[in-house]
Amino acid sequence: MSNEEPAANADKPLRYKRVLLKLSGEALAAGDSKGGIDSETLRATASEIAAVHKTGVEIGLVVGGGNIFRGLSGASQGMDRTQSDHMGMLATVINALAIQDALERQGVPTRVMSAIEIQKMAEPYIRRRAMRHLSKGYVVIFAAGTGNPFFSTDTAASLRAMEIRADALFKATKVDGIYTKDPVKYPDAELLKTVSYDKFLASRLKVMDSTAIALCRENGLPLRVFKMAPGNIGRVLQGEDLGTSVGEENEI
Fold first, then answer.
1. Helix or strand or coil: residue 28?
2. Could you tell me if 168 and 19 are in contact, meaning their C-beta atoms sit under 8 angstroms apart?
3. Residues near 12 by beta carbon (within 8 Å), at least 6 away in sequence
4. 40-44, 122-126, 158-162: range with lowest mean pLDDT
5. Residue 94 Cα to chain centre, angstroms
6. SS3 category, 113
7. What is the DSSP letter of 49?
8. Distances (CA, A) of 16 to 94, 151, 167, 245
């Protein structure tokens, strides 16, 4: 992310009133770094979210923990999967607290709500309380995934989006959207501008896990995957056709 982030255009009407934004943990790391939290990247991300918040949209955030510890990676190295996933949940809490601090430095009121009990650092997740926070103008950061092992933060994002009655789910990632195959490994990969839930599941596209997509399909939740770049959050909220739109076949 560059040091200068264009603010969202406050004169252009927003398409959505309440959204859920999913950030990967890697989005908080510097450049090609594989881990940790980069202070400048964190500040730039918070500035981007703050600009959109000023337009009046209600924002919920789910952040991953892959920049610190990824549960599935730990399990692949011989750790107990449940134990490994619990460690991953704690990593998301660290990232949530970092984002909270960065947002509040931008003057944005926030609440961190955790799916596991950490009362001295975060509120317990209670759906009605979360919706009340959102309606009062707080950015609500949902930490610790679903609180259960074997479920990804993508699934947590889909679940929380439906629980808070979000108008849409947005996933900010490192690439421009959903490709036919991994664009890093295959130069001939094609960017899909639209894809149906069924095609996404049948093609086993990897940008989000199948459980998250199945939840979106069963509840008709629109999803857009786009590149995390300066100004892009504001642009997608104003209806610009960035990235890939995922939805019902007859609606995209």
1. helix
2. yes
3. 238
4. 40-44
5. 15
6. strand
7. H
8. 29, 27, 6, 15
What's the chain's average pLDDT? 89
- Residue 159 is which amino acid? L
CA torsion sign for 244, 195, 61, 87 is negative
pLDDT single digits (tens) 166-220: 999 999 988 899 999 888 888 899 999 999 999 999 988 878 889 999 999 999 9
Based on its alpha-carbon atoms, the radius of gyration of the chain, rounded to whole angstroms, reads: 17
Task: Determine which helix (DSSP H) or strand (DSSP E) holds 46, and give its type and residue range.
Answer: helix 39-53
Amino acid at 95: N
E strand or H helix at 62:
strand 58-63
Domains and CATH numbers, the chain: 18-247 (3.40.1160.10)
CA angle, residues 143, 149, 151, in degrees to nearest 5:
75
Find the Cα–Cα–Cα–Cα dihedral 43, 56, 141, 243, rounded to 10°: -70
Question: Is the confidence at residue 5, as pLDDT, over 60?
Answer: no
End-to-end CA distance of the chain: 30
Q: Is the pLDDT of residue 74 over 90?
A: no
Tell me the whole-structure pTM to 2 decimals.
0.90
Which residue intervals of 110-252 are DSSP H helices? 127-135, 153-163, 197-203, 210-219, 232-237
In single-letter form, the type of residue at position 15 comes to: R
Specify the higher pLDDT residue, 249 or 25. Answer: 25
In the numeric block, which tokens belong to residue 157?
């994002």
List of residues 6+ apart from 75 with CB closer than 8 A: 81, 84, 85
